[in-house]
Amino acid sequence: MGEGRSPVATPITVAVDAMGGDRAPAAVVAGAVAAARGRDLRVVLVGPETAIREELAQHRADDLPITLLDAPDVVAMAEAPLAALRRKRRASIRVAADLVAQGGAQAVFTAGHTGAAVLTAHATFGVLPGVERPALAVIVPAPRGAAILLDAGANVDCRPDHLERFGVMGAAYATVALNIDRPRVGLLSIGEEAGKGNDLVREAHGLLAAAPVDFIGNLEARDMFAGQADVIVCDGFTGNIALKVGEGLVEAVEQMLREELGAEVVSQVGALLTRRAFARFKQRVDAAEYGGAPLLGVAGLVVVGHGRSTPHAVETGIALAARLAAGGMIGRLGRALERGSGRQAAG
Amino acid sequence: MGEGRSPVATPITVAVDAMGGDRAPAAVVAGAVAAARGRDLRVVLVGPETAIREELAQHRADDLPITLLDAPDVVAMAEAPLAALRRKRRASIRVAADLVAQGGAQAVFTAGHTGAAVLTAHATFGVLPGVERPALAVIVPAPRGAAILLDAGANVDCRPDHLERFGVMGAAYATVALNIDRPRVGLLSIGEEAGKGNDLVREAHGLLAAAPVDFIGNLEARDMFAGQADVIVCDGFTGNIALKVGEGLVEAVEQMLREELGAEVVSQVGALLTRRAFARFKQRVDAAEYGGAPLLGVAGLVVVGHGRSTPHAVETGIALAARLAAGGMIGRLGRALERGSGRQAAG
Q1: Residues B292 and B303 sit within 8 Å (Cβ to Cβ)
Q2: Per-residue CA distances from B108 to B15, B26, B202 (Å)
Q3: Is the Cα torsion angle A226, A228, A231, A237 positive or negative in sign?
Q4: Mutation test of the interface with chain B: which of A273, A280, A308, choosing the one with the most B Cβ atoms within 10 A?
Q5: How far apart are alpha carbons B22 and B28 in whole angstroms?
Q6: Least CB–CB distance from B281: residue in A222, A253, A264
Q7: Lowest mean pLDDT among A72-81, B54-63, B106-115, B217-226
Q8: Whose CA is closest to B278, among A247, A143, A254, A226?
C-alpha cells in the first residue's frame, strides 16, 4: 500500500467512485471539483467515462488535477452486493480499489453501496493482522469536540470478539482523527452496569475490559452525544439504528420547532435567530459535515460517504480520505493492532 | 383477572409500587396523590409502610382514595432481578402484582426495575395464549399523533417469532391506545428493502408479512418519528437504544441550541420564544409525558414507568394503567392474539 512507518508523500491521489450515492454522478463530480480546488490533492473520477466527462464539463475544472478512469458498471443501492460484484467485474467501486492496489492512488472515496464497498475493500486489500471484520467508523458530535462510533453499518451481525477489535481499531483511529492520546472506549448498551445488555454486549464487555484500550465500560445510548466516551463500540445494526434515529430526530425537531414557533405570535427577529441557530446546530450533527466513514481494518484506505451525500459531503469525504492517507492511517492502525495482540498474548 | 368480554367496572384500583424508580418513594407518592386527585381511580401504595406513610403525610391526601399495603423488601435497580426476587419474597413489585392477582386491584404501576417487573408479571399472571415473550410498548411522538414502539426493553435477545408476536400485540394495543382501526405495522431496520437488516430482522420480515396485521415492511430508523408506521417492531435491545438515543439527543439539542443562541447577539424576545417553543417540543418527546409502557402479553395489566420518573410521569403512568384497565385491554389483546393464531393456522 505504500504506507510504511512514515507518512505518505503528498500530494495524495484519491480514487473517487463517481457512481456512488443517490445523487451520482452530479453530486460526486461537483464535490470532487470542490475538493480538488484549493487543496493539495488529486482526484481520479472512476465511472462510465462519457457520462463523467459530460458532468465534469458543467464545471470549470480544466485547470484542476482531476483525471478520469473508465468503469462502465455500477452496483445499484438496491442490489445484493455479492452477486452484483461477481457479475460486474468493471464496477466503479472495484476499478477504484484496483487503482489504489496498483499504486495509482492512495485512497478510495465512495458514497455508494456500503456492502459493495466493504466486500470490494476486503477482496482487494485484505485485512490487517488480527482483524476479521472491518468496521465503518463515523464521527459523532459531542458537547466539546467529537467522538468515534463504530461499527456504523458494515457488520449487521457480530460476535463479541469483533466488538473487541472494533474497540482497539476505534481507539487507534481516534488518536489520528481526534488527536487524543488515550481515547476512552465505551460499549453502547442499555444500562451502565456490566451485566446490562444483550448476550453480545455482555460477552464483549469482558473482552474489552481485557483489551489494550482505556475501557470505561458500558455507555448508555442517552449519553451517546454527551462526550463521555471518545470511542463508542457497537455492532453495525445497532450503530446504524442509533445514527439514523439521531438524523431523523434532528429533522423532526426542526419541523416541530417550526410548528411550535409558528403557533406563537412570534417576532420575525426571534424566528430568524432560531432558524440560524438551528442551521448551525444541524451542521454539527449532520453527516454531511463529516462526509465519510473510513472502513477500519482493511489494508487499504477506503472512506464511505453517506448515500444521500451532497456535493459538500463528497468534498469533505474526499478531503478526509486524503488527510488520512497523508497521515499514514493504515500503518498506524496496523501498529496499534499489533500492540493490541501483543498485550493480549502477554496478559 | 376479571377482564371478560366487557370493560371492567370503575373506579379502577391501581396497585402502585411505591419503591420503584430513582426518586422513590417521594416522586411516586407525589405522583400517586396527583393521580388520585380529580380522577375516578383508587390507589394502593405498596412498599415499606412507615416510610410511605411519612411520605404521604407531606401531602394533603387524607380525603383521597389512597390506601397503603406493606411490603418491606425492594429490588434495587442494580440488582440481578431473578436472584433478588427469589430472595425477597415481599418485594414491593411482587406484593403489588399479588394484589391484582387476588382481585384487590386491576392494574400495577411501577417505575422500578424493568427486569423485576417483567419476571414478576410473568410469574404472577402467566402469559396470554400464543405469547412466549411479553413486550414493553411505549408511545413515541409523530408529526400528527403518535406511534407504538415495542419491545422497548423487556427482551434484549429475541427470536424472529417473538418479533412477529410483538407486531400482533402492538397492533391490538394500537387499536386501544391510539384508537386506530387498521394500524400499519413496520419493522425497524437499517434499510427499507426486505433483505436489509440483521439475521433477526430478515427472518422476522417474512413472518410479519404472513401475520394477520397490516405489515408495511421495514421502517428505517430515520423515519421512526415520521409517522409512517403506527406500530414499530424491534427487539428490546434495539428499541431501548433507539429510544434512549432520542432522549439523549433532545437534551443535546437543547444544550447546543442554548449555546448557539448564546453565541449570537440575541434579543431577549427571541431567546424566550425559543425556550418556550422548545419546552413544548420537549413535552411531546419526553417519556415523562407518556408516563409508562404496558407490558403486553401477560395476563394481567402492568404498566412500567421510566426509572427516572418525575411525579408528573408517575401520575400519567397511573392514569394510563387505570384507563387501560377500564378499557378491558387484556381481554382485547387476548382476542386479537386468538384471531392471529387462527389466521396463521388457516394460512
Answers
A1: yes
A2: 5, 18, 35
A3: negative
A4: A273
A5: 10
A6: A253
A7: A72-81
A8: A254
